[in-house]
Structure formats: C-alpha cells, structure tokens
Amino acid sequence: MSTVIIDYNQKRERTELILKRINTLAPIPKILQEVLQLLNNINTSPHLLSKAISKDQSVVLKILTIANSPFYGLTKKVSSIEFAIMILGYDEIRNVVSALSLMESLKNKSDQYMDQKNFWMHSYVTATIAKKLALDMGLEKSGEAFIAALLHDLGISIIHRFMHTDFVSICDLVSSGASYYDAELQVIGMTHGEIGEILLKYWNIPDLIGEIVCNHHNPKLSERLPVLTSVVHLADYMTQQLRVGEFNWDDGLELNDHIFSALNIKDLAELGKFIDSYKEPLLAQIESLRYLA
Fold first, then answer.
1. Is there a contact between 152 and 146 (Cβ–Cβ < 8 Å)?
2. What separation, in Å, do the N-terminal and C-terminal C-alpha atoms of the chain show?
3. DSSP 245
4. How would residue 15 be classed by pLDDT, with cut points 50, 70 and 90?
C-alpha cells in the first residue's frame, strides 16, 4: 500500500511541475489583459470595450451567441458587441471574456482522442444549463455558475495539449474498462478538476470559480459553494441524459447523491421530470453553436 501512495505522490508532484511550466508557456492572452484593464476603469465606455474585444473574432462570435441564448428571453437579436455589453453588463462580460480567452489560448488541434468542436459544445451547453438552473432556483451567482460550468473541464484540455502522452494513456486505460477518474489518478496523480483549479489560480481567476471546477464531480467536497457546485454537477449530468453536447469523457458520469439535498429535489422520479423540462429550450439553440468551435 505504501508503494502505491509513494507512486501516486510522485505522479502528482510531476504533474504540478508541468503545470508550473504551462503557466509560463501559456500566459494570460493579451486580449484578456487589455479587456480587464479597461473594465477596471470606471470611465471605460461600451464602445471602447467593444473595440478591444473585437480584436478576437472567435471571442466575439461566442459572446454574441451567449447574449442571444433563448434563456435570456430577448425579443430583439443581439448583433453587436456593444449591445451584448449592455445586455450582459460589465461584470458578466469580464467573466465571459476571461473564460473564453482561456479556452481559446489552451485549445489544441482535434485528433482521434479528442474532438475540439465536441469539447466546446459540451462546455457551452453545460454552462447554459447551469445558468438557467441557477436563475430558476433564485441563486444570486448565476453568472459564476455559467463561467464555472464553461471552464469545468478545462483540465481535460490542458492534459490533451500539454501532457498528450498521458492523455493517450488515460484513454487507453478507459478503453480497458477503467473510469476516467481512476485513470487520471493512475496516470497523472490528480483529476482534471484539480488541474483546472490550479491553472485558474495561477491566472488569478476568482477562487470560487476554481473551487467549483475542482469539485464539479463531487459537489459535497465544496466547502463554500456546495449548492452552486451541485448546479454545475447537475448541468454536466443533464448533457448526458438529454444527449446534447456530445463529449465522451463524461460517458458513464454518475449523479452525485448530494444534489438531492443541496437542490431540494425529492427523488429520481422528480429529477427525471425536472431534466425533461429543459430539453426543448436547449435543443432550440444547439444548431446555432455548431459553427463556433
């Protein structure tokens, strides 16, 4: 048993060293630095902010898609970044730009082990569900739910890009019958949630976001935000149940029982009806996302 623990610790220490190097290799994107500086200035106008964001068209497209989500219930299409800024507000724009910039800077090319379009779709759909759940439950931090859900699998992208040999080893173990959770621990000594939290801390993303990302598969471990973490966990689970946002890494994802008490859901029957009620509005926007990855 002691040999297993030593081996696990050595793998964890090796992964932590790699993550420190990643922090140097992949610093915060310039667009994010510029936008955050502007947002910290109370005199920044929507025009000036939109001009900075418009330097990255991939981020522009995704912000417009978020603003046009059916869950915002707008009657008029949001066709400009300036309008999106007014709809979302500066605080949410800060969170959205931060999350999208990080996802773009860490994105790798698709290969046989991971399809980047499916990864983006899964991340966005999970975020959309999480925000809707938070709003419907009257939670104050619906914006944080969206961002944490958008970044919940960031660690997977990091492993794929910067530890690709390990990524392949994890996939091989899963093909042999292991769970992704066990395979991650066996190969790199930590989970993708922990990896996401470490990198987010390096990049000065709020600790609360990192805590949700770290515990999104086991929300009862979240000390400060067990309810919001349960929301993200349920949103992640719902993408599998509703068959939206295909992503193999979550195949066989088990629902954590903690969500029943945290979210006041009585039983599995009530949960099933609850999940089905979200299917129609989600499917209404899936097609509009396919060109964004």
1. no
2. 44
3. S
4. very high
Note whether 183 and 228 are within 8 A (CB): no
Number of H helices, E strands in the chain: 17, 0
- Asked whether the beta carbons of 130 and 149 are under 8 A apart, the reply is yes
Q: Average the pLDDT over each of 90-99, 113-122, 139-148 and give the range with the smallest value.
A: 90-99
**Would you state the pLDDT for residue 65?**
79
With beta carbons less than 8 A apart as the criterion, state whether 149 and 132 touch. no
**Residues 6 or more apart from 62 whose CB is under 8 A from it?**
100, 124, 292
Say how far apart CA 65 and CA 4 lie, in whole Å: 47
Q: What is the mean pLDDT of residues 79-107?
A: 80
Dig out the tokens for 236 from the structure.
Answer: 């992640």
Q: Does 293 score more than 60 pLDDT? A: no
Residue position matching structure tokens 């910290």: 40
Residue corresponding to tokens 């990091």: 158
103 Cβ neighbours under 8 A, 6+ residues apart? 120, 123, 150, 151, 154, 157
> In the chain, what are the domain boundaries?
2-289
Assign domain 2-289 to a CATH class: mainly alpha
Neighbours of 1 (CB within 10 A): 5
Residue 146's CB is within 10 A of a number of other CB atoms, namely 29
Nearest-CA neighbor of 85 among 58, 118, 47, 136?
47
φ, ψ (nearest 5 deg) of residue 245: 70, 65
The average pLDDT across 168-188 equals 92
